[in-house]
Design a protein that fits this description.
The structure holds two protein chains of two kinds. Chain A is of the alpha/beta class. Chain A has eight helices and eleven strands. Chain A is elongated and about 60 Å long. In chain B, helix 1 (8-17) packs parallel to helix 2. Chain B is globular. Classes of the chains: A alpha/beta, B alpha/beta.
Amino acid sequence: MVEFLLIPAYWKEEVVLPADILEKLSSYKSIAIFGAVQFIRLEKVIEQLKEKGIKTITTHGKRTSGKFQILGCDCYEDSFEEDVLSADAILYVGDGLFHPKALLLAKAKEVLLYNPIAQTLKTITKEDIEKQMKKYKANLMKFLNAKTIGVLISTKPGQSYLNLALKLKKQSDKHIILFVDDTFNYNHMENFPFVDVWVNTACPRIGFDDVTSMPRPLINITDAFDPGKALARIEKDFL
Amino acid sequence: MGNYDLEEQRVIEKINTGTYTKVLLQLPDGLKPEAWELVKKLEGATGATIFVWFGTNFGACDLPLGVQSLGVQLVVAFGHNQYIKDVRGW
C-alpha cells in the first residue's frame, strides 16, 4: 500500500497589491477573487480592496479544498457556489494561464491576472480561447456524422471515469471502442485510423485546450451525450 | 528552493517517523529543476532511497499508480492540495 503526502508549496511571502495596480482596480465596484494554491493566502489583498470601497466576492472551485482556490477543471458555470460572473471584474492571483482560462470557459468575458512574482497585471479575454472553441465546434459537427468512436479512459485515479465511458457505449447508436492509457500521447491516434472521432473522459481541459494540436478530432464525454446542445452553447457563449 | 515553501522538514519527519525506505517525489514542471537539491537533502536527512517521477504532475488528480512494484511506500506530491472528485462524472 502506497501512502501519499501532498505539499502545496505555498508562496512564502504575503501577497500584497502594489499601489499602482490597486489604483487600476479602483474603477471596479465589485471584484471576484481567485488564486492558484501557491497564492491562496489572499486576506491582505481582500483587505486592500475593501479599503478602496470595492465589494469582494469570494468562493472556491467545487473541485478544490482551498479557500479562494480554482483548478483548471473548475471550468463550468456551476463550478462555484457564488455568482462570480455578476462581479464587475474577476481577479486571479497566480503565475500561469491554465487556471484563469477555466474562468473564461465558465463564461467570464475577461479575467484580470495579477502575477505576485513579477508584480504585473494583465487581462485575458474570450478572444484568448476563440481559436480552440472554433476547433471544438468543428469537432462536434464531425461527431454528429461519425460512425466509429474511440473513447479515451485514463488510469489516473482522479481522472478515471469508466462509468461515463460505459454509459456512452450502452446508449450510443455509434460503434464505440474503449481505449485505456495513463497520460495520452495524441500521436497514438494515428495508429487507429478506423476511429472517426475521439471522446475524452479524463480531464475536461483536454477537450478545450489540446484540440488545436491533435491530429484527429476529439470532443469531451459530457458533450457526446448531447452534441446538439453543446453546439448551441458554444455558438451562443463563445463565437 | 526559491520562495516556495516545500516543507522539507515536514517531509523529513514523515519519512523518519514512518518505516519508509523508498520514497517517490512528484514535482510540477516549475519545480522539477529543484529535484536534485531536494533528493540530496532528503536522502542525507533520512537514509531512504529517493526516486523522482519522470512524468506528468497535472494536479492531485494525477497521482502515480503502480510504483509499489518498485517497493515505493510513500509518494510526496508537490504543488497541489486535496482534489475533490465527483465520482458520478464531471
